[in-house]
């Protein structure tokens, strides 16, 4: 619990890694994921760092592995993706591994190249056979449709019939035949026509089956064509055009016998090729199967190795070049673990000198670490989405665990809907170990990650639904209503009493459309309903008026409590950061302002609830008027809520105004105190101003003197801080390292700037209080919207379905029920739930957190192998 | 007055404009160049480029890395982006893109024709063609012997066809004629592009017209410079000048009469825009070449194009800037691989 209230204390540690053991130490650290490394070589570009060679080698290995995975996928061999994650390979094995992989790659490339060559050959032969088969029909067709070519009798039909007749004519008839992509046929034909000016005849037909393109491997439709032409010159052009359109050209047999011979030869060659190809593929498969066994663990190992070298690149070398120095952020609780990991690493590498660490004080703000479990994670995520908390700041996530689902439920108050949501969340929680759920993406993944939020939201909705007495827009009469209708009849009262009260008799009941129950009549109102709102209101025509008034007041009360709580949390922050003056000068005026104005409003609401009963209700003053009057300082006497109210309320206004002004003025003071608050308890501000400037001077001096590298600079800075701290400790006598003075940064102390910030801040707070209170009215508005929407759904669907008479009603009710369920889930649960969720988030982020939360931290990102992705799909992307 | 561009541009082209502005933000910064210049080997260059927008575009290249590999991959990346823009564009932006590719297509056609003249293999030449100017009939270019053949047989269906009107007179394709052909094509191309932008109006015209005017004038200068000492007559030279630039008509006529660089400079003195450019040219080894000066001016204009919104010019400007960046990287890479580090800093900085 404590760890959720504030982020964990961090310390900056220096690791002295002996160069022989650095790799093993980092491997051990990566397995545990304890520390966050700081980049000490920020001004060194990526290719000038020390371990670039090693990183490149890892990249080379990754490339080979990606190639292997690609080939394995292509061969449809299942890849074992184990859960185990083998440790990073020892340095001795790396070379061996690299050799193995390279050999494997060379072998694989050769086999696949052979395979591709064979395959291409085979495809070409198949294409050739197809072409021969199809072109045979061309020739025959030409014979059959001789009349169509009447204009050029000498050109085609004759010549095709008889080769020798062509020679007689003294010209040479040539044929070019082949295959062409389907999409290019038309352009091809046009180009032929233009270039050869019509001295060619092209016949083409579509091939029934799609064939693979030997070059690209795509499966596409092809056209077989046959061009007949006259003369050498045109022949050359035709061939060039064919080249241009990437046609696959095959020799065209001149006689039928030749064609048959070629076809026979082709079929035998295809047979041969098939067998050879099969053998090659079998061998390839064997190789790949063997590779597939180890490829997963190797990929993991290489990734770990690469991560280690990336981290080592962030370290700086010490003067003697013998050890690497790393600076890490480490949670104080994990320091022991860190030491042990270093020892383990050193032992593993068998080094004589072990690597060691020591903590160093620092002025820099450490990263924020808040350990979460699966339950608190979702809530922490909501807070982090606004901004990661500053170091050691009060963490609102702890309180959000209850307030968030509660505020959501106020807007989503429906017993039935809440229960459905609860059941859904429970289902997710029960099956949370199911692998398909935990790896689900997109929308389901979102629901899954927020399952505990959903669970609590459902539970709280059940509770508020009970309070609102809403179950799918209907009320449930559990305990029996507190109102008695029969008591309103004049017959049930003694004659003496009848005169005073407006009672009912038969004629009244018969004539009037609306009847009013009067709680001041004895026996009509028998006391409040035990839990929530009386179900009889469901029948009343003024139900909405009643609920609106109730919900409006409730949302203001909840809002004020929520905001006050936020301001109080601010006090914890000031206490922790040793800014006592901020409590007196900021938090107290803020509280005073809030409570005197809106706290008093809440008081009036509750007071009116308690004091006025049914009998005296007609004399009750309006709170709204009272509240407005409070600011107008009425001179004429009005009847207030209680005796002496006018004076007390105006004094409250004065007080709150004073608080407002005080807050403003006092903010100024608080800024002044930053430089000249003369208090013995607080030596830090005045000394800090002085020391700060000297400190800055020193560091800039150190930088200017040009002493090498970033690292010495950091150290020097921190050493000075130590001496500074020491002097302060003597003055203050407090424990070192843990006090607020360390928060002091080396910024320029600018009085005017701080003054402006504080003025703006206090004005913003005062205006914000009013607008934020109004903002909490969204609680009422959304719960009203939700109740009305579910009411409409009931009236439009179920009531219609239930009104139909018995015989058809049964048949009708089934689809009506189904539609009702679907609409309930999609509109009321998903859509309304989403909007209530968003508004609850807003109320937390804006109205609650701006009272105390800065959220200007950085997240602690430990160097951990668990954060690497082991998926192969990433490799291929 | 509120032009119509502000109102409707985003309906059709807003997405692409946003995209291209994002791409422009990915251009290498001054810091990147400083780091690149420090590289010792091409491997270092690759490592550094990985940290920029180029990403791991060289990841699949096997060792050893060469400059041409880097160049090809960079071109492929640019081409991919351009194709994406083009595939998602609507009129009139898609016509604008077609115009943009025409320039590259002309270069490719000329490259292929002159290659065929020198009996180089088509496959070799295709590799050297710019991918942005690729078109399906391209490979058939070498079956033509005369420009009219070229036009009728090959280019009649391509976007280049309209530019061919003036080029039918030459009968043979020898080396000089090819150059003349290129310049004539470019002339009509630039004029057509200029008119298109002008007709489009709005911000596009305001941005693109100055860029194209500069392009036209630059061509005029370079034609003049290259024709010194060749057998090209002065009238023929004047016929090659694109007439959409600021030099038209007086400047071009004077330029046609110029006989050496000094005379050219005297012509330029009348034009405020180009005078400082010619003055910046260093003589001999010390200063920049005229080409570099022109490049710098072009970069400046292209960067300025990004200051206006709702126009097509950003696409042109982005492509040109990316090309300049590629030239810079190739220059640096060449300097590194040839160990010729003294001139490594003379790339054209893109602000």
Automatic annotation (TrEMBL), chain B:
Keywords, alphabetical: Hydrogen ion transport, Ion transport, Transport
UniProt-listed InterPro entries: ATPase_csu/dsu_sf, ATPase_V0-cplx_csu/dsu, ATPase_V0-cplx_dsu, V-type_ATPase_csu/dsu, V-type_ATPase_csu/dsu_dom_3
Its biological purpose: Subunit of the V0 complex of vacuolar(H+)-ATPase (V-ATPase), a multisubunit enzyme composed of a peripheral complex (V1) that hydrolyzes ATP and a membrane integral complex (V0) that translocates protons. V-ATPase is responsible for acidifying and maintaining the pH of intracellular compartments and in some cell types, is targeted to the plasma membrane, where it is responsible for acidifying the extracellular environment. May play a role in coupling of proton transport and ATP hydrolysis. Regulator of osteoclast fusion and bone formation.
GO cellular component: endosome; proton-transporting V-type ATPase, V0 domain
Species of origin: Myotis myotis (Greater mouse-eared bat)
Name of this chain's protein: V-type proton ATPase subunit
PANTHER family noted in UniProt: VACUOLAR ATP SYNTHASE SUBUNIT AC39
Domain of life (superkingdom): Eukaryota
Subunit structure: V-ATPase is a heteromultimeric enzyme made up of two complexes: the ATP-hydrolytic V1 complex and the proton translocation V0 complex. The V1 complex consists of three catalytic AB heterodimers that form a heterohexamer, three peripheral stalks each consisting of EG heterodimers, one central rotor including subunits D and F, and the regulatory subunits C and H. The proton translocation complex V0 consists of the proton transport subunit a, a ring of proteolipid subunits c9c'', rotary subunit d, subunits e and f, and the accessory subunits ATP6AP1/Ac45 and ATP6AP2/PRR.
Gene Ontology molecular function: any one: proton-transporting ATPase activity, rotational mechanism
Family: Belongs to the V-ATPase V0D/AC39 subunit family.
């Amino acid at each position: 619990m404590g760890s959720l209230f504030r982020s964990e204390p961090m310390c900056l540690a220096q690791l002295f890694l002996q160069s022989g053991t650095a790799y093993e130490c980092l491997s051990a650290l990566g397995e545990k994921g304890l520390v966050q490394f700081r980049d000490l070589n920020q001004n060194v570009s990526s290719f000038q760092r020390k371990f670039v060679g090693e990183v490149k080698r890892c990249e080379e290995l990754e490339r080979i592995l990606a190639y292997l995975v690609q080939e394995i996928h292509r061969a449809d061999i299942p890849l074992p993706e184990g859960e185990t994650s083998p440790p990073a390979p020892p340095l001795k094995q790396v070379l061996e591994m690299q050799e193995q992989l390279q050999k494997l790659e060379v072998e694989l490339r050769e086999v696949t190249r052979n395979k591709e060559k064979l395959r291409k050959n085979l495809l070409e032969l198949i294409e050739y056979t197809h072409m021969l088969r199809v072109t045979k029909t061309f020739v025959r067709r030409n014979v059959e449709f001789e009349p169509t070519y009447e204009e050029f009798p000498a050109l085609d039909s004759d010549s095709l019939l008889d080769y020798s007749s062509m020679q007689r004519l003294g010209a040479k008839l040539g044929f070019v035949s082949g295959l062409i992509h389907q999409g290019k046929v038309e352009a091809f034909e046009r180009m032929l026509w233009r270039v050869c000016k019509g001295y060619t005849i092209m016949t083409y037909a579509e091939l029934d089956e799609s064939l693979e393109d030997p070059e690209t491997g795509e499966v596409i439709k092809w056209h077989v064509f046959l061009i007949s032409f006259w003369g050498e010159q045109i022949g050359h052009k035709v061939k060039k055009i064919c080249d241009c359109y990437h046609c696959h050209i095959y020799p065209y047999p001149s006689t039928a016998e030749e064609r048959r011979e070629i076809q026979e030869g082709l079929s035998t060659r295809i047979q041969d090729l098939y067998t050879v190809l099969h053998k090659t593929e079998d061998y390839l498969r064997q190789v790949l199967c063997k590779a597939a066994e180890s490829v997963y663990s190797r990929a993991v190992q290489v990734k770990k190795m690469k991560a280690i070298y990336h981290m080592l690149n962030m370290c700086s070398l010490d003067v003697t070049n013998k050890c690497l120095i790393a600076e890490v952020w480490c949670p104080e609780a994990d320091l022991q673990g860190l030491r042990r990991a270093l020892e383990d690493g050193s032992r593993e590498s068998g080094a004589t000198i072990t690597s060691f660490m020591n903590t160093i004080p620092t002025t820099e703000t450490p990263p924020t670490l808040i350990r979460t479990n699966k339950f608190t994670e979702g809530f922490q995520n909501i807070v982090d989405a606004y901004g990661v908390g500053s170091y050691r700041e009060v963490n609102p996530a702890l309180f959000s665990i209850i307030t968030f689902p509660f505020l959501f439920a106020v807007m989503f108050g429906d017993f039935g809907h809440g229960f459905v949501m609860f059941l859904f969340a429970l289902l997710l929680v029960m099956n949370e170990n199911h692998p398909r759920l935990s790896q689900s993406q997109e929308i389901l993944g979102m629901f899954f990650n927020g399952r505990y939020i959903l669970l609590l939201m459902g539970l709280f909705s059940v509770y508020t639904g009970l309070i609102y007495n809403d179950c799918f827009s209907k009320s449930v009469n559990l305990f029996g209503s507190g109102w008695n209708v029969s008591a309103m009849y004049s017959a049930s009262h003694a004659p003496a009493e009848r005169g005073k009260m407006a009672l009912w008799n038969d004629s009244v009941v018969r004539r009037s459309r609306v009847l009013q129950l009067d709680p001041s009549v004895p026996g009509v109102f028998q006391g409040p309903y035990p839990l929530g709102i009386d179900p009889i209101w469901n029948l009343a025509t003024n139900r909405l008026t009643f609920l609106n008034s109730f919900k409006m007041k409730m949302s203001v009360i909840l809002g004020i409590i929520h905001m006050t709580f936020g301001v109080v949390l601010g006090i914890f922050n000031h206490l922790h950061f040793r800014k006592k003056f901020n409590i007196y000068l900021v938090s107290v005026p803020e509280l005073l302002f809030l409570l005197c104005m809106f706290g008093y409003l809440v008081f009036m609401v509750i007071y009116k609830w308690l004091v006025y009963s049914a009998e005296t209700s007609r004399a009750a003053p309006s709170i709204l008027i009272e509240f407005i009057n409070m600011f107008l300082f009425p001179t004429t006497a009005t009847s207030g809520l209680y005796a002496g109210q006018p004076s007390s309320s105006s004094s409250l206004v004065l007080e709150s105004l004073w608080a407002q002004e005080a807050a403003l003025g006092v903010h100024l003071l608080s800024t002044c105190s930053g430089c000249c608050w003369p208090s013995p308890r607080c030596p830090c501000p005045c000394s800090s101003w002085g020391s700060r400037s000297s400190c800055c001077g020193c560091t800039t001096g150190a930088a200017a003197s040009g002493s090498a590298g970033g690292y010495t600079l950091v150290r020097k800075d921190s050493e000075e801080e130590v001496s500074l701290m020491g002097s302060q400790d003597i003055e203050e006598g407090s424990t070192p390292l843990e006090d607020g003075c360390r928060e002091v940064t080396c910024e320029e102390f600018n009085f005017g700037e701080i003054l402006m910030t504080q003025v703006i801040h206090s004005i913003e707070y005062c205006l914000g209080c009013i607008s934020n209170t109004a903002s909490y009215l969204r609680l009422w508005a959304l719960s009203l919207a939700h109740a009305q929407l579910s009411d409409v759904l009931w009236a439009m669907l179920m009531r219609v379905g239930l009104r139909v008479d018995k015989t058809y009603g049964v048949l009708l009710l089934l689809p009506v029920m189904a539609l009702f369920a679907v609409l309930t889930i999609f509109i009321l649960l998903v859509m309304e739930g989403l909007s209530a969720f968003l508004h609850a988030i807003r109320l937390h982020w804006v109205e609650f957190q701006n009272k105390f939360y800065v959220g200007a931290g950085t997240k602690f990102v430990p160097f951990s192998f668990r954060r690497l992705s082991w998926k192969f799909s990433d490799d291929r992307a | 007055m509120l032009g119509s561009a502000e109102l409707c541009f985003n309906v059709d082209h807003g997405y692409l404009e946003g995209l291209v502005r994002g791409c422009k933000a990915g251009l290498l910064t001054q810091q990147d160049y400083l780091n690149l210049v420090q590289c010792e080997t091409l491997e270092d260059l690759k490592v550094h480029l990985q940290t920029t927008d180029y990403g791991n575009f060289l990841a699949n290249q096997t060792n050893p890395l060469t400059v041409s590999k880097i160049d090809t991959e960079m071109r492929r990346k640019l081409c991919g982006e351009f194709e994406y823009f083009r595939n998602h564009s609507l009129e009139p932006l898609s016509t604008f893109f077609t115009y943009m590719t025409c320039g590259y297509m002309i270069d490719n056609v000329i490259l292929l024709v002159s290659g065929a003249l020198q009996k180089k293999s088509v496959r070799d030449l295709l590799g050297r063609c710019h991918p942005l100017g690729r078109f399906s009939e391209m490979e058939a270019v070498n079956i033509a012997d005369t420009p009219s053949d070229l036009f009728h047989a090959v280019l009649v269906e391509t976007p280049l066809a309209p530019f061919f009107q003036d080029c039918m007179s030459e009968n043979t394709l020898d080396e000089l004629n090819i150059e003349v052909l290129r310049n004539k094509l470019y002339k009509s191309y630039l004029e057509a592009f200029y008119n298109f932008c002008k007709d489009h109006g709005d911000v596009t015209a305001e941005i693109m017209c100055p860029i194209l005017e500069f392009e036209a004038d630059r061509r005029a200068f370079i034609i003049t410079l290259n024709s010194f000492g060749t057998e090209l007559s002065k009238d023929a030279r004047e016929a090659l000048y694109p007439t959409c630039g600021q030099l038209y008509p007086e400047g071009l006529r004077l330029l046609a009469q110029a006989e050496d660089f000094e005379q050219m400079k005297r012509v330029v003195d009348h034009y405020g825009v180009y005078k400082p450019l010619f003055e910046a040219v260093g003589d001999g080894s010390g200063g920049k070449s005229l080409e570099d000066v022109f490049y710098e001016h072009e970069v400046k204009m292209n960067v300025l194009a990004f200051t206006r919104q709702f126009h097509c010019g950003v696409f042109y400007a982005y492509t040109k800037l990316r090309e300049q960046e590629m030239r810079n990287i190739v220059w640096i890479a060449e300097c590194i691989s040839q160990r010729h580090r003294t001139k490594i800093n003379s790339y054209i900085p893109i602000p």
